[in-house]
Each structure stands twice: as structure tokens, then as C-alpha cells.
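The instructor's notes for this session suggest beginning with a concrete chain rather than abstract definitions. Hand out the sequence below and ask the class to guess, before any prediction is shown, which regions might be ordered.
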Amino acid sequence: MAQMCRKWIKREKFVGFPKRENLEIVEESLPPLEDGEILLEAVYLSVDPYMRYGRVYNRKDKDRDDIGLEMPGTQIARVIQSKNPKYDVNDLVLAYSGWVTHSISNGEKGIHKVPVNGSLPPSTRLGIIGMPGATAYFGLLDICKPIKEGETLLVNAAAGAVGSAVGQIGKIKGMRVVGFAGSDEKVTYLKSLGFDAAYNYKTVPSLEAAIKESCPNGVDVFFDNVGGDFFGTVLPLMNKKGRVAICGAIAEYNRKEPLSQTCPINHLILRKQLNVRGFIILDWVDDWDKAFSNMIFWIQDGDLKYRETVFTGFDKMFDAFMSLFEGTNIGKIIVKI
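After discussion, reveal the predicted structure:
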């Protein structure tokens, strides 16, 4: 009997915040396996901010915006049928299959076996020892290059999957770490992780004053997950030859109105001789295993903690996705099937 598959299809372009009616769940039957193929059943699915733009950065036809295609994304899946000698039934894999319940793979492209590690659940391969963890590791250590102990690191969206890891790695490297997040609950969480100072950016009377208070010696390293006006507020407070990693710009993804100009950014970068770099973590993919080896050690040693916000059920994919932009999650968002 043919295997049925459910998938989320993008029917309309997102304008402003994504809407449920922009997407549709469809059902289709998958063809029989051919030699060399495996049949996958999703166990955990990831939602990440980049999905707001789908595959648009990898397409020449940018105007199409992936209309009619399934939403992209990574999942932990179980092999439920195999005609590939490299994979056995019940093997777990990390697969770039998108928002689908079942998929067929040739076992080569966009798929990796999930290493067996009894101390960490498979879902961590979507989070702390997956793409978000690698982003934190290489974004801080390779892009920002901490120079000496005691330097000040400022992280925004600090209670998210990337930001919380960045701050903890900064502490491991001897930095003074200051985090900004969007709720009092998140501030409490950041302090439990060892952040030296943490603020709810929504309730501080002045973002600039909070930064000056918590960074009396200025900001040496700024790990920016937010962009927008936050970016413009921090730059004047950077120290000479400070380093900035532009990881994300979630404040701008769903914005319709233009950004306010809070400072002459180009002049500040020049005058302060700042090293400002945007980066895509796939450029380091060949080195991920080295990073994960160190991060697993830190986790087991108690120096690196993580949290997952779990939604249950394939029908909850959109709700999980929107929680990214509503700021309700702490840590990595996972959808469990």
C-alpha cells in the first residue's frame, strides 16, 4: 500500500507577518521505493526564522517566492523502509525534507545519520548541537574572535536557541556577557545561565541607558540577532576595533514601514574601525563536527545548558513558526510528531 504524506504548501506570498491562510496542508501518496532509496517518517521538525523567506536566497527566480512548494526545513526522521544498504529500518537521520510527515531520500544529499548519544535526545540535533548551536559557536569564536578575558559581549534575542548559546560560550571564554530579551521570564532564564546582566528590552525606559549601565567599559563584541533600531543603538556604544556578528534581523523580517535612522551607521563603523560581518553558517558546515564535539563536552560538564519549546502535532507547525516572531519561545522551538 502506498505511503501517504502530509505537507505544508506555501500558497501565497507572506506580506508582513505570515498568516495561516498563506499556507495549506495537502495530502499525497508517495511512489514505491526504488533501489538505493529510503522512506522517512518525521519525528521532530524544526522551525527557524529563515523559513520566512523559504528558498528564495538559493533561487535565481527570486520573484516566485516558492509559491506552490512545501515549506523548507530540517527534521529528525526515522527510516521506516530501506532499499539502501547504508540504512537500516529505525535508523534516525537528520534530513532537509521540509514541512512533511514522510519523504523519500536517496540517502546521499541533504541527509546525515544521527549519532547515537545516550545523554542527549535526538531533538538536540535541530538545536544546541545542530544549526543553531553551530551558528552560535562559529559566529562568536570565528567571526567575533574574543581576544582576552573580561571583554564585554552584548547579545540580543538572547533567550533564543542561538543567543542563549552565544552568551554561555562567551562565559566559557571568560567574557562579561549582557543579554537582552523580550520578557521578564526570559530575563530570569538568562540570569540562570550565568549572564552577568540581562534586561527586558520591552520594559526598560531607555535601551541606550540600559546598555551603558550594564557595559560601563563599552561593548567589545556585539552578536546581533535582531537588527533594526537595536543595531543603530548599540553601534555608538561600541569600543574602538569592536567586532559585530550580524546573524539575523528578526526585527525587520515582517516590517512594512521603513526603519528609523538612529545614527549615521557608515560613519560610526569607519570612525570606530569596527569589524562588522554578516555570515551564513553553512560556510562552516565541514567543521560542524569539531564544534559539536566541544559543545557536547560543555553540556556534559554543565557549562552549556539548553532548553526546547516543544509543540506537539504536525498541525501545529504554523503555530510553532509564528512563535518565533511573537517572541513567546525560550530556546529552540521543536515540533514533535
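Then share the key points. Confidence is low (pLDDT under 50) at residues 56-63. The CA atoms of residues 134 and 285 lie 8 Å apart.
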